[in-house]
Amino acid sequence: MVIYDLICDIDHAFEGWFKNAEDFQSQSESGLLTCPVCGSEQVSKKLTAAKLTKKSNSGTLPAPQRSTAQQVVSADTQSPEKFAQLQKMLGRVHGFVEQNFEDVGNKFAEKAISMHKGEEEQANIRGIASKDQVKKMAEEGVEAVALPPKPIDPDKVN
Ligand SMILES: [Zn+2]
Fold this sequence. Notes:
There is one protein chain. The protein is 41% helix and 14% strand. The chain has helices spanning 21-29, 65-100, 108-116, 131-140; strands at 2-8, 13-18, 43-45, 51-52, 102-103, 125-126. With 158 residues, the protein is of the alpha+beta class. The structure holds zinc ion. Zinc ion binds next to loops.
């Protein structure tokens, strides 16, 4: 492992960790070497001697600066994306239910149970049920799925 003191074209100084001198050379030539502060690819070695790490007995070495910076960035961009994806999916589920299920409001449990008993024709229904009603439905063996709350979509709010 070698550590170089590196500097970008607008004078951000940082350390780069490399397997060896060739690794630095190839990363630098293929443009993989970027400044962790501004992302510039114009990175050069500061004119100091390369240091060899001698911390083999310390157990944990700090991660290379370059990949640390990347990890932070990707973690930051990933979770909102996933959250947006989840919201989108949830929105589709709600859209499907709204289009294909008849809204029976708070008569949901009543209707679901009588459909289950064969007193009423089977249909796709949606509605609201209290805790007691949910319990009653479970006792009657009615299968109902509770949907997570509808996502708030600022674009679609009128
Ligand atoms: Zn820079």
